UniProtKB/TrEMBL annotation, chains A, B:
<dbReference type="GO" id="GO:0030058">
    <property type="term" value="F:aliphatic amine dehydrogenase activity"/>
</dbReference>
<comment type="similarity">
    <text>Belongs to the aromatic amine dehydrogenase light chain family.</text>
</comment>
<feature type="modified residue" description="Tryptophylquinone">
    <location>
        <position position="109"/>
    </location>
</feature>
<feature type="active site" description="Proton acceptor">
    <location>
        <position position="128"/>
    </location>
</feature>
<feature type="domain" description="Methylamine/Aralkylamine dehydrogenase light chain C-terminal">
    <location>
        <begin position="68"/>
        <end position="178"/>
    </location>
</feature>
<keyword id="KW-1015">Disulfide bond</keyword>
<keyword id="KW-0249">Electron transport</keyword>
<comment type="pathway">
    <text>One-carbon metabolism; methylamine degradation; formaldehyde from methylamine: step 1/1.</text>
</comment>
<feature type="binding site">
    <location>
        <position position="84"/>
    </location>
    <ligand>
        <name>substrate</name>
    </ligand>
</feature>
Automatic annotation (TrEMBL), chains C, D:
<feature type="signal peptide">
    <location>
        <begin position="1"/>
        <end position="26"/>
    </location>
</feature>
<keyword id="KW-0560">Oxidoreductase</keyword>
<keyword id="KW-0813">Transport</keyword>
<keyword id="KW-0249">Electron transport</keyword>
<dbReference type="Pfam" id="PF06433">
    <property type="entry name" value="Me-amine-dh_H"/>
</dbReference>
<keyword id="KW-0574">Periplasm</keyword>
<dbReference type="InterPro" id="IPR015943">
    <property type="entry name" value="WD40/YVTN_repeat-like_dom_sf"/>
</dbReference>
<dbReference type="InterPro" id="IPR051200">
    <property type="entry name" value="Host-pathogen_enzymatic-act"/>
</dbReference>
<feature type="disulfide bond">
    <location>
        <begin position="174"/>
        <end position="189"/>
    </location>
</feature>
Amino acid sequence: MKKFDADGLGESLLRGFAGRTSRRSLLSKLGLALVAAPAFPLLPVSRANAAKPDRSPEGKTAFARAAQTKDDTECNYWRYCAIDGALCSCCGGGIHSCPAGAQPSPVSWVGTCINPDDGKAYLIAYRDCCGKPLCNHCFCDNADRETQIYTPQLNNDIIWCFGTDSMQYHCSTAVLVGAAQ
Amino acid sequence: MKKFDADGLGESLLRGFAGRTSRRSLLSKLGLALVAAPAFPLLPVSRANAAKPDRSPEGKTAFARAAQTKDDTECNYWRYCAIDGALCSCCGGGIHSCPAGAQPSPVSWVGTCINPDDGKAYLIAYRDCCGKPLCNHCFCDNADRETQIYTPQLNNDIIWCFGTDSMQYHCSTAVLVGAAQ
Amino acid sequence: MTLAAARVLSSLTILALMTASSAVRAQEGETSEVSKMEPPKPEWVFVRGGFGSEGTSIYDTKTGKMKGMVNTSASSDMALDPTGKFYYVSETIWTKGNRGTRQDMVAVYDAIDLKLQADINIPDRLLVGERKQNFIISDDGKWGFVYNMSPASSVNVVDLTKRKFVKAIELPGCAALMPNPAVGFSALCSDGSLATVTVGGAKPVITHSAPFFSATGDPIFENFQYDKAKQQTVMMSYTGLIYTATLGATPTVAQPYSIQAAAGYAAADTKPLAVDWYPGGRQPMALHRPSGELYVLMHMGEYWSHKAAGEEIWVLDTTSRKVVRRFPLKIPAAHIEVTQGAEPMIFLNEEEGGNGIILDGKTGKEEHKIERAGGGMAYTMPAS
Amino acid sequence: MTLAAARVLSSLTILALMTASSAVRAQEGETSEVSKMEPPKPEWVFVRGGFGSEGTSIYDTKTGKMKGMVNTSASSDMALDPTGKFYYVSETIWTKGNRGTRQDMVAVYDAIDLKLQADINIPDRLLVGERKQNFIISDDGKWGFVYNMSPASSVNVVDLTKRKFVKAIELPGCAALMPNPAVGFSALCSDGSLATVTVGGAKPVITHSAPFFSATGDPIFENFQYDKAKQQTVMMSYTGLIYTATLGATPTVAQPYSIQAAAGYAAADTKPLAVDWYPGGRQPMALHRPSGELYVLMHMGEYWSHKAAGEEIWVLDTTSRKVVRRFPLKIPAAHIEVTQGAEPMIFLNEEEGGNGIILDGKTGKEEHKIERAGGGMAYTMPAS
């Protein structure tokens, strides 16, 4: 099995930073692993012809309006605004715990979800748990601010099992990173 | 991939025939590959406490009474009296043809089915087609005279892909061997 | 998380902070964790995914909740370690999925962290829709027996303590293994006998009982029930005859009796054009060992309907030889298993819709419904 | 049948005749055969099994019958050879299923006998729910481009004539590949530009168009439609803006127009708390290239519902920029594809129930229903 090459990645990042790669593409690469940073607000997006969408907590999506904070085994639990897959909470794991024998991916896609209790936006890292067959429960596919693979850190179709011993997808967690600004 | 060892099998058969193995167990081994012989009538079955079941053409099973001879893509086609799996006729193959790229197993389980057109019993070799992912159509599970693995040539749960390049199960055919006596 | 992954994460966090230090209040962040299992409990049920599916889900029958999953590959066989320390998976994997080099092995998973401990290579094994009887463990947890047909019939003996393959024993004409603590294992044979294999000596010794059933006329379901405490195996034939074998160096098989007769009907038989209640399914029965009650999936039909899903559960008291309870099912089920505690819980796999159902074994009351529980064989931990 | 297998069979037949010569009238026996395929036809649709499933089933949209299956492993990407000689599968297989050594390759299957011709080893590729744009073939069938993210973004260039990997090209910030016959391939980027990669030279040259869309505000679906004859790609954003890129060494992108406006509505936008018809699904559109008609799955909803299944098919004439037909669907569909002959046939994967539906492209009339057709991405042979 191919292991995640930490040194290789570091080198690639540094090469990028020092050399020809623009800040945009560095951020794009970085974004892949920016579980501790809200990736899309950092992207210097050039907008050709669309108004800036309202991303304030007030600009609630259909998901956010129906979200709840009590039951993390339901697809409408507030943190799941951009999750795609089986909920680890239904598979023997928890909201930020992999089921026994699975391994959390150190890198992930991210979402910005609104907690209905305080109306604030939080950054959520959707860490896949890897190395076991698909858990066949609680499939959810929410897509708030979810984009395509050219913005990979915001895409929830990718099998986010980089750096794990196995890339087999088991289930997904929703780890609270912090308040989004 | 482990290939079917023809010479090994022959040797084993001869050893069995010549040596300590009884005729019963030789026949049992042989039965595995007796696609050209009705296996169960040959087994010298010792009956302890059950009446001999009626195996005459008149002794029709529920399957035989409802069987038809027109459409080999339906589970009640007469030859399918003991088939278990996807019908190759629904997968790009035919009643005795594997779909392109699949490989027929040279050994198989067997059934004795009654043709409603002439009321006679025929020996059918259920040859699995192997080496492609499961064909997801026309699943049938008929069980006339189907037994357990200790009588393997009459068991339809075994993946009958011995001697093929790949043991992946794709679909099953029903090859007419001849009239049963 | 691996050490390497942790290093990546920490170095990336630093980079992230360099470029985005104000964007996140990092102190609020959670860390990712990995759950651990308890040792296998009597109230758990282990449910295979079904033909071609991977993974065996573990559910708590008291709550209906999933506890975890054992990594079972397609066409593998799982066995529970009687000592509760490991889950064993005998499996066959090609290096390129459906092509490449064949590898047969027994994978060893720790029962607490569910991590792979070892792959024990074995020569070969039979690929078949799930069968419990193709991979069994001795009562003391020290020996594994893996059935093989390639296409000659044999059994691979695996030393689970040393984690190595020991030898293959030829077993012509027989299959469907059960532990036989006195000597090694026993098996059913196509001549209607029970074979007993003495494993310990320099050469294996195989003896046969007198034939007692018809392997083609009225076969015994492989889904027989071995009772470690009594060293007995309760078996059932297609017509519903119940056979009890007492194991040992020279096993004995008691005269069979009819489950239909135990319910007040005439015994069923093999004749065509006769309708009766018959046992059937892919896992047609389960024995609650502490009480000796046998839970059987029964359906109305004609002979050779032995794979038909059950419309009722009949609970047969094997001591009084009476059917003491009958539970009609809303949706027919092809698999039944029962937990081995004092309060037995029944697990069923519904034939249509893919739900798993948990019933109270005493009352038949539906306690939980588990969507997509898994379509395959169910297991419970044997009484210790 | 292999030669070895044939030998087994013939020697066994002899043995069988020795022991059972009178039991069978051998002259009646059939032989087993293996079907062959025709070269891929415009009226065929290729349907993936869906996430985690193996196999791509081939159906004739005229008859609704299955013709065969391409051996696609889970998480693989399939590409159709424009010359019709091969099916290519870029796939990733570990030597022990979910563990062992990782192997990335492009498997080559002959279009007539569907047998594996070669495995072309490549360094790595991205694992993701099915995407056509992650594995594309040049118009002449000579080059394969396999997208990779590990997690840096790059493209593996494969010489399909020599059947060997040539080189990997770093492609930071971009993904979703389309052929660009002039130079190599183009791709969409997170800065809203179209990148164009010149592959032929000693060093790859990457140029970017001016940004023309917002990758996070109103992303363009990766399921864009490349038209070889026009050397154009028709693209659509989450709000329903239609972009047309004319490829070449320096691609140009025309001003977009709104599909809702083309149907007489106001254009949809990204504002919260507004309801509109939006495009959506996992394969939301298909271009009938001979007519320039774009078939789009549309649903009513709010913004960020881009994965929702379609409730209607809107047929957009990309020449007149008018929606010329609307077909309401009985059951919402998440995948749409259309055949490329003069009489287009629509293939849909219903969201509930797993059926494939074939509709007449002109009338919307349901012609065939295929049970369990496959839950994934659908492909048709591009017009030759």
